[in-house]
Amino acid sequence: MSQAFDPRQGYDGQGRMIPKAYDAILLASFGGPEGQDDVIPFLRKVTEGRGIPDERLEEVAVHYRKNGGVSPINAQNRALKAALEAELADRGIDLPIYWGNRNWHPFVNDTLKELAADGHRKVLLMGTGAYSGYSACRQYREDAGMGLLETGLDGVVEIDKLRQFFDTPAFVTPFVHSLRTSLANVRAQLAEAGKEDGQIKIVFVTHSIPMADAQAAGPEGIRADGYENLYTTQHQAVADYILSQVEEAQGLEHSLVYQSRSGAPHVPWLEPDINDALEEDAAAGIAGVVVVPIGFISDHMEVMWDLDTEARDSCAELGLAFDRVATPGTHQAFITGLVDLVEERLAGPDGKSLREGRTSVVAGGPWFDVCRPGCCEKRALDGTLRPTIGAVDSEVGVPQS
Ligand SMILES: CC1=C(CCC(=O)O)c2cc3nc(cc4[nH]c(cc5[nH]c(cc1n2)c(C)c5CCC(=O)O)c(CCC(=O)O)c4C)C(CCC(=O)O)=C3C
Ligand SMILES: [Fe+2]
Question: Which of 3, 46, 75, 93 lies 20 to 30 Å from 30, alpha-carbon distance?
Fold first, then answer.
């Protein structure tokens, strides 16, 4: 019989991966320091070869230093892993989860060696980035692609990647619930201050990225189609969906702004910065803001510092009431939804997927299981493209047929 799909990819030509009998999940994340001595080595690793000035490193180090040199992100990923394991066990799915990071222990390469030594050969990578873009998607594919080559496991371990999940009920449902809570909190703050009639604005916020990365987000074919850029467009779609689900939000002003800009000042990044935007909101007569951090899945340092410290301080100075919506974390809807995504990809005993179709509630989804040509392309400083897994043009991480 002729092959209905590329045997290397198990790819159906519609952006979907043929279901497979995966034998492990690799939870891939950013990583963070776990003590004062880790902070500078961690930051050097994050900014390796990217020309982030030392002053900026020292500035960022302070955020971690004030928290004992510890980022909350590792504890949050351990909790996420445990919650996913419990949900898989509840469904009778025997699929171990391994955890590996880009920038701190446990490093992806060490995790790859461990899971291979445990006998695993078909791995489904779950990255902690929800959207398209280099940092949130392609860089996780590179981490795995380079990891396979560096550990000599290419051709031994096969790695596919779960689709980006910005559009899924898993990701957006927790924000819908938490937005209701935060709106009530800001209303209560205003009432206490005798400003019952004060205008509330909903400020959606995500990680700023270089304009060039934003313009390269997504596959070649979709990028040009009249969008501002796909990274921003996906965030706007998520914001619109969340607003549509919260009755108390109807009629309120809202915006999409950016946080945590780094890099050289002359390089353009997505704007406006949240702190500048808050100043304008206050000047325009807004009385309180609800900040919705739709760029992240957990309350890690970028949330703790840039929002709960800096943006909160900005609001205090400007006389704005403030509340920050919780990120998905281990919200049950997030956990069950992520395991639903695993089921979409996992072959049952009959070889068929445990869950037919691809669930999606936000415009622009469902995203591809397999990244299309040129997706979120970014060249290394030497002009080459790094090896990746999980794309139609990946050359590593696929079975040797
Ligand atoms: C899109 C995106 C996500 C979301 C997707 C995802 O979650 O993957 C994300 C997550 C995170 N970013 C984080 C921390 C940092 N990001 C930096 C630097 C950068 N991020 C970028 C983008 C993103 N970043 C970019 C384009 C840069 C500059 C270039 C570079 O250097 O790559 C720097 C360098 C220092 C500085 O800020 O200048 C740090 C310390 C942490 C950990 C927090 C903790 O420790 O709790 C997390 C989860
Ligand atoms: Fe970042």
Answer: 93
Q: Are 124 and 161 in contact (CB under 8 A)?
A: yes
Beta strands across the sheet bearing 288-292:
253-259, 200-207, 288-292, 321-324
**Helix (H/G/I), strand (E/B), else coil: 295:** coil
207 among the known binding-site residues? yes
From the CA of 59, how far away is ligand 2's center (Å)? 14
The token duo for 379 is 């060249």
Query: Cα(80)–Cα(332) distance, rounded to whole angstroms?
Result: 10
CATH number, domain of 178, equals 3.40.50.1400
Q: Which ligand 1 atom is nearest residue 103's CA?
A: 42
Q: Is the pTM of this model over 0.80?
A: yes
**Cα-based distances in Å from 50 to 27, 44, 214, 248:** 25, 10, 17, 44
Residue 264 forms part of a structural domain: yes
Domains: count for the chain? 1
Establish if 275 belongs to a structural domain. yes
Tens digit of pLDDT for each residue in 44-74?
Answer: 999 988 777 778 888 899 999 999 999 999 9
Give, as one character, the DSSP assignment of residue 386. Answer: P
Ligand 1 centroid distance, CA of 30 (Å): 8
Q: What is the ipTM of this complex?
A: 0.94
Pocket of ligand 1 (CB under 6 A): 30, 32, 43, 46-47, 50, 52, 56, 60, 71-73, 128-129, 133, 135-136, 207, 209, 260, 262-263, 295, 300-302
How buried is residue 72: exposed, middle or buried, by Cβ count under 10 Å (0-12/13-18/19+)? middle
In a domain, 39, yes or no: no
Residue 186 structural domain: 169-324
